[in-house]
## 1
Amino acid sequence: MTDFLLLLPLLIVGAGAISLMLLAAFENVEKEIAGYGGMAVFLLAFVVQLAGLTAGDTYVFADIFNSMMVSNTFTQVVGLIITACGFFTCMSSTTYFRQNHFCKLEYYALTAFAACGMLLLTMAQELITAFIALEILSLAIYVLVGLHRTNVRATEALLKYLMLGAFAGGFYAMGGALIYGGANSTHFAVIGGVIAAGGFFDQPLLAVGSLLILIALLFKVAAFPFHAWVVDVYDGAALPVTGFMATALKAAVFAFFANFLMLDHGLQASWVEYLFWIAVFTMFAGNLIAIGQNSLKRMLAASGIVHSGYLLVALVAFTSRDFSDSVLLYYLAAYAVATLGMFCALSYLSGEGEKRQNFDDFKGLAKVRPYSAAAITVFLLSMAGLPPTVGFMGKLYIIINAIHAEQTMLAALAIVSSVVSMWYYLRLVITMYFYEAQDDFITESSPFAPLCTLILVVCVFAFALLPLGV
Amino acid sequence: MFEHVLSVMIFLPLAAGVLLLLLPVSRNGVRVIGLALSVIVLVCGLKVYVDFSGGGGLEFVEKKTWIDALGIHYHVGVDGISLFVLMAAAVLFPMVFMLFTAKSRAYYCNMLIALGAMVGAVVAADLVLFYVFWEIMLLPIFFMIGLWGGEKRIAATIKITIYTISGSLLMLAALVYLAVSYQAQTGVWSFEIAKMAVLDLHGGFALLAFVGMMAAFAIKIPLFPFHTWLPDAYSEAPTSTTFILSAIMAKIGVYGVIRLVVPVFEAEMARYAVIFAYLGVIGLMYCGIAAIGQRDFKRMLAYSSASHMGIIALGVFCMNVQALTGTLFQIVAHATSTGILFLFAGILEERGNSRQIEDFGGVAYSAPIFATFFAVAMLASCGLPGTSGFIGEFLIILGAVKYNMLVGILAAATLVIGVCYMLWMFQRVFFEKPTGKTAAFKDLSAYETLVFLPVIVLILVMGIYPQPFIAKIEPAAQKHIIQMITTGEPALAESTAVELPYITITD
């Protein structure tokens, strides 16, 4: 029974995805109906996940899944983040697709399938399960990225993401095979035991295998040196899809990343010196790319790289599983709230065919639509990490965690990076507020995306008051 | 209500500022509400001032758990150091609402948010809380300069924002470093400012933390060579924003040094304070000389303000009772003299429609009351005996001489520069032949005279009979210096108190 209850959110999203797919078989269904269906599925899954939060205990699915999956507070909170992201994405999508006419009924089904893979990925404690989960979510996301088939940039984005993603999948499979060769098992617990017994770098199969898996994961979270795809892919995809990728996908992969690295403290400790530099280069590479962008979406994509860097800082600076996990979760939630909010606001403000894309297109927004401009400002401040927003608290915890783990240098570099990032966040605020409007910013009215933006603005401030759940 | 007086002073204006931004209230409505709220804050401030017992510790304390796992609290309180900065903010803010008709209602909302945040930063007793208010403080300034400033407002906004945020983020790293060191040394998480004094800090990272923290405050004060944002920001900002920047925000920078740097980094202060003392003197000279050359009087006042901030900073780095008392006294004196001068400059600009000194002349003939008030504030700013500026600067120089003879002599000698540019400007603007712009210059109205009069009286009272003020300041200053020398251990403080090189000014 416990098995069932803990799996319920996953089952709901899975069943919802299949029903939405079946719904798409009927020709005369309104697209908005599918949107409401998607919202309902995610909302239900979120509520069930929230109601089933278990404090502290780790439940291993020993009977039905042969210990290949676990459920604990960490996976459950990530589940909350993923389902909430799915809900808000569906919400902003309905508004987005009033102004952009390439929606297919399968859109919401694919979103649910992707979320399904993400939920599975966070619970996976075994390499094959994780691989299946990764592929479920990747396939759904590939289709979502290329949804606008007649658009050249969407097709380019799809091609880039598909080719590189397939390579990453290949790396993962190869790495898994090597690890299996070295440890005779794909279970994290067993692999951890073998590493602890024989040392890490003395067992080349394990070392090379985990390196390959690490490469695949770094690709998925867009960390240096595998970050180059992000800007084009995010730019080509539809705004709500980009928002979903930037938040839910990142949360899921980072959760698995943490699970994989911490499978035994040995793995994290072995890689920490290299991860240090990866984190540093990720932050600064993202900043350098972001500074040069004129397109808002591309800037947000690049800033996503920087945030991956901060999340890597939380992985590098490991104090205790509980503390580092809460810091990671808090930052994931903080990042998700602000980024989703940003994409929600853009998905209605960008207008028909995403005609407003560049910084300059948003000149004087505050004069015409002051509330929308204020909401965007709040999200930008949160991303920049200024108080009193949730982004500030997230960054504060990341820095506390890093200095506590005696990674003071890394904390200092993270600070320098956020100084640099101020420029491109504030640039948009300056553009919106300090120039005269040249556009009327008329958008087709639909309450969902603005409502969703409002909820997320409230979340930005409300979450900042939440204590860190250690 | 009065056990939550500080929270009221913080959150009443903050919440009202945000709400009024969202609600459709007319500009005059917002102005009246803003005035009412700032007067309530003033009344609360006076209540705190009167009830303040001066025992040395924090009073009016409120402490509530915020993030238990890390020992972060909502913790506010007032002591002798913060009292005067708090009072400066409480007294000066209502003038903004009384005197200035803003272009937009949002301007008043921003002012209210600034008021709440500044009060919050001054009374915060927890590092995280302090940082939160410290950063919120910048947001209204950002919008006020950027939206309602002069021609080059965008460049000025970017400059002040990038400068101060870089400093603040370095400070954030330093704050966290302090708290983590505290956890490492005592085993308990705490972000309480007062507890940081017991830390035993050494090594490269401690030095880095010291530098990071000093960077934030040096930029905010601003200390030479971090002052380059100041002339642009001060001259491009709307007059009342400049007034707030110069009269209060800069003081919070000084306050930050006294509160967060001096008691925590004793070793670093003992070694490096002399560098900062020299930077203060260099700033005093450099900005003073730069002020002489200015043709734009707002820009000249900006340099003058920076120059006098140099001597206030010097008072902090001398680390003795006279200098610190002088600094705290001068915080109020500078706020009431140079701050008011910015308001007068605003009136000049508005009525003469220019900021160039050469466009003016003979204002004194058509506006005698204005000229008299201007002269009093100006002389106080130069430090003429009989005005508030003299007492503060005299005490600081006294302390500086004791700390380092050369620094003291340099500081005393350089004050003359202040007299040069001020008197020369006064001569050109208020005397000489009236120009076309100034022939029909309107004098202060009865209402304006009434608003300015209390401040002018305060300048004179503080200069002629400073005793009541010094009596409030000195115990706090003494306590602070003792605490610094003995790293916060009361028993040691008792024994070293007698050997301290101070004279009691109250006797």
## 2
Amino acid sequence: MVTVGVVSFPGSNCEAETFRAAERAGAGTVSIWHRDTDLKGADVVILPGGFSYGDYLRTGAIARFSPVMTAVTRHAEAGGAVLGICNGFQILCEAGLLPGALVRNGGLHYLSRPVDVRIERNDTVFTREYHEGQVIRIPVGHGDGRYVAPPEVLDMLQADGLVVLRYHSGVMLDAPANPNEATDDIAAICNPAGNVMGMMPHPERLADPNLDSDVGLGVFHSMVSSLAPAQ
Amino acid sequence: MKTYQVHVRVMPRVGLLDPAGQAVEHALASLGFGGASNVHLGKAIALDLEGRDEADARDRARAMCERLLANPVTEDFTIEVTA
């Protein structure tokens, strides 16, 4: 069984939904505390959404120095799967596990709403259960979600195909395209090896069959089907 | 060791969109404060810092900025050290 570990930092607040989504996808789960120095056997580590350390200084800036991040970095460098969702994405950027940074939304407002995103790649551990080009409607909830990076990094992301999700308009017209004014409509990126991904949308918030949509469950099914030992 | 007062100023990188600065600029204009432009919002961080001398304190403050206080992707910083 694939084991998903979810890290709790002081101020994380999406752990419960993330655990439930992983369980619905058939994974085992383990809770990891920010002071832990090992990952308790997790195959996938998820840095969940929330407001670690109250977003003091910058989002993710203090959480990235938590003891657990040494183990997370080691796991990532060894090819282990690491997913950062929202605040988790911000932490991964601050930690240097992903390039660039997430800054204040272009419109300054905190955004809590559905957006449409396009699956740019379905050959990652996190997106294989979607189709390339598929547009999914999924919630975001953030004040600092505008992805920025130096021009040479943006060129590299484009050339190497490291953008996994882009904000999208045109299919479902009532959802705002690029709500935070992210550069190049970037909603999710991965590292060159494809084992570390950060995403601003919250797949765990649409992962319950009792809701209108459980399209976010695809992220969790993807991790389980990618990492399950071959039968 | 001596103790120095360190003031770090962290500002958004020039050229990067600064929506908070723009919002304050618009608010100033709407209050009738004409002629205000290039408004930018940053952070000021004050600390007392021990060092062998002023240069040592400045070096340590710079290391703090590079490691934690500023994000090298999006921000620039300046450091003032006084005895």
## 3
Amino acid sequence: MKRSIQFFLLFLLLAVSFIASTALGSVTIPFGDTVRVLLSAVSGKAVPGVSAMHHDIILRIRIPRVLLGMVVGGGLAVSGLVFQALLKNPLADPYTLGVSAGASFGAGLALFLSYVAGVQFKSFLPAFAFIGAVSTVFLVYFLARTGGRVQVLTIILSGVIVSYLFSSGLVLIMSLMGDKSHEIVFWLMGSLAGFHSFLLPAACITGALSLFIFSFYRDLDLISLGDEQALALGVNTEVVRIVLFSMTSVLTAVSVSMTGTIGFVGLIIPHSMRMVFGPKHKTLIPTTLAAGALFLPLSDMIGRVLPSVLFGSGMEVPVGVITSLFGSPFFIFLLIRGKKRLWF
Amino acid sequence: MKTAVKARGLTVSYDGCPVVRGVSLDIREGEFLSILGPNGAGKTTLVRALTGIIKDVGGEVLLSGKKLHEYSRREFARSVSFLPQMPPVSLPFVVSDIVMMGRFPYLRRFEMEKPRDAEIVRNAMRLMGIEQYAKRHLMELSGGEVKRVFIAQAVAQESDILFLDEPTAGLDIAYQAEIFKMLRDFNENLGKTIVLVTHDINHAARFAGRIILFKNGSIAEEGKPEDVVNEDTVRSVFSTEVRVEYDNGVPYVLM
Amino acid sequence: MLMNHNRISHKRALLPLVVSLFFVILLSGPMPSRLSAGTGIDSRGSRVTVPDDDVRVVSLSPGATEILYAMGLREQIAGVSVTSDYPPDFVKTRPKVGGFSTPSLEKIHSLSPDVLILTTVVPLNIKQQLDSLGIQIFVSEPNSFKELLGSIDQFGRLFNREEESAALIHDLRNTAGEVMEAVRSGSIAPVKTFIEVYDNPLYAAGRRTLPGDLVAMAGGRVVPDTDKRYPRISEEKLLLIDPEAVILGHNTDMELFLSSHRHLSSITAIRNRKVFVPNPDEFLRPGPRVVFALRDIARFLHPEAFE
């Protein structure tokens, strides 16, 4: 299939995902109404013939949710791609350096404090989660740094250890919270619901960081040759690693602090794109971003609509569950089919 | 472009154990130098230190009179290439992409590859006789062909100095001779400085203009092949008895 | 002659002796349960019996703790869960046995309770362990005000405090009645009320729960209209339902609620800021203080009835 056709299909899927996720939900809204509201979205005024409530549902509930999904999906996918390249490990994902454990711990701490010290801590939950996420990366890097250099294997090990550390901290908090620990469980499941005043800044940050990461596409290609050879060809591997790890960790932290830990996106999307578009990061970075941006809202939509249809209204399945449920068999399919074209 | 690499008192230690002990040497422009020595002598470490891949070193390395750490990696890569012993085989990239990677030192962040870059890559592949493999994956090629791909990459890098770490290790005889001939060609016709770490005494003696025998982190012998390679030196450096014969003045070692 | 007399007097003395013996045996034998033990029926329909004297009860339900206290039990309450915090001075003196989903079975066993009061049906492995330790379980899970009163009644029978339980029931009925009377007299239409028990994801309390019942009694019409106890609801559905009032039954406050529900600000209740956070210990706890929550909610929903 020609490359240009592939790009076109990707873009088409992105558009389909956007429209489908906006048109479908637990409340049935005629498709024509949805389209008209979307088209008039710029003016923000109510479209005659469409009830104000439908208007509200589309513009104030669904569209922000879809946008959040695009931002987070794209961010997690690109982060996963970069982690896989830097660690030369196909199993790496954005959470490999302990980011999810740190974020969960931060969120748990905020919830714990909201019971012990005052409800206002709940509104700081995203900030706590963000700080937790970013702290783990620094901790991991600090631990892995021996004699001025950082080995890839050491980083992965440090990531595992730091993950365990923060996870146990989280379990401790949960046992202290006892009956109220369901709040943390909900957060861990990951969700695109809720109001996020930070959505617009987050979108800008994601865009900016993705562009910044994109400028390193050659470095990422060369790093797959091995550190020695990359160095010999002029790549400053140490600096590139530090910069890209920091940027992707911030990218991941921004996403996780808003939605909780949504898994699998950062793992399957990069691999899928690699199988379709090849290994060059010049193509991979934008396509992974687009694929992540279309995958998450679509999964969320399935989680919102399908259980409602099957089990009765109001029932929604957390998006993280859908990504894993669909991700696992898809991944197996890719493995079986694409064995020789896959990495290792 | 006249460049030279100079090392003064170069020292490298791993965990407090010195692997390269205060080595000083001059690499002259346009020479074909071969570094020989037993396993564990520190040859590869020496080369890694000379090319700045290992940074934690004592002493200093100078390229064209300027200290190594004063160069940016990109700048340095325009003058010096390094081919490690084990190139990665399971790369998902095609041959032409890999050779194009040699242009990295010349391309800025958002700069696109220019027609000239593509031409350089084509020429390099033609030179190494791998043009027909341009769109193939590395995994499909034989060991010798893979080596040629990476040499083509170094050629595309347009560097004056090539460091190679055991380029013929694990290759069959046909390829071994071929690689050495190619390198001599680069040296005599393209004026490149070649520094070769190898176990292959005989090919080194035949093709190199100068040989360094390296033992225990220091230079044991150094000079023209016919001066350096003899039964005594081999015995003392490699701890083994051999017989040395001469073919048109070029020594060759019989085990 | 004297021997004869003695034999006859022995025979005469024997009868009263035998009769007294008979009564002694009668009175010391197993007694009908009404007199030395109490029996109550719990929410599962299970019959539980405990002795009257020196009865020892451990309560993992903060609501039950308050009920028992109100009925006059003191040292009979051998242990409570850490979540039992009322009345504070009394509860301080009681040994603690953990939370209601994380009780310490060891601690409970060491207190030798005759019965353990819980608010929810326990997982099987815990129940089996309790059975093997010989500890009876009394599950108290009222899902309406009426069931709460029924619960109090059963506690009265269980602990032989029927007078006290009757008095408590009477008081609560009166207070509730007053509130409902005030609401009714205002003859205002019931307010469409949404009870939020969690916000992310959104969970509601239906009318078949104690909180739902209280709101209905306070003059609210509980939405969503469902038989499910704690249904999950999507934000879209909530917009569709458009409640006139919102009552919060989780760890939050007005400001936090408004800022996290800004995208739902077109809902009537939010637009008019008709949002109320009752004291969760009164609203969500099946205990005597629910009537205070009832009163507060009624005042919130129908302020004009309480001028």
